[in-house]
Amino acid sequence: MSGKARAGRPKGSSDARQKLVVAARQMFSALPYEKVSTRMIAEKAQVRPALINYYFGAKSGLFEQMLLETMEPMRFRKRLD
Asked: For residue 25, how many other CB atoms are within 10 A of its CB?
């Protein structure tokens, strides 16, 4: 058996999903959508690129989730006003 990590679901508890959202926020804030690759995001998050598909289905799903999580504090504040 090789030492290479296998794609698929992470073992045990993992903060990979949150790391991906944070990395995506940083990358999409600095570069246009077309210039950001899933490999770039995964590398910044220090996780396997396959986890983007596992958690979000595709780059577009990650982008959408990142926007939702970024906007949530503003939505909550608006409800309080």
From this structure: 16
